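Quick review question:
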């Protein structure tokens, strides 16, 4: 992650390291898909990511992704999909 562009990319660029065992594999330029079972690892990482948000826009985006992840975890045959540039 270069940390440029969208609010989410900026937060990811500041935060991601090897300790993010799921989110560090987000492809900034391609598509990354997480399934319902992966939410058990993704959601805690998103909560950690939130602490790296510096602006209201960044916090709002991370909160929106957390809400979507919670929906995926509670559902069946749902996926959290990140689409790169």
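Suggested answer, residue by residue:
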């Amino acid at each position: 992650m270069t940390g440029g562009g969208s609010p989410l990319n900026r937060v990811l660029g500041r935060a991601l390291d090897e300790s993010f065992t799921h989110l560090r594999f987000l492809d900034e330029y391609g598509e990354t898909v997480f399934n319902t079972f992966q939410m058990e690892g993704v959601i805690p990482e998103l909560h950690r990511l939130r602490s790296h948000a510096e602006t209201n826009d960044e916090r709002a985006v991370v909160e929106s992704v957390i809400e979507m992840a919670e929906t995926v975890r509670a559902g069946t045959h749902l996926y959290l999909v990140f689409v790169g540039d």
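Why it works: The radius of gyration is 12 Å. Helices lie at 7-15, 39-50, 56-74.
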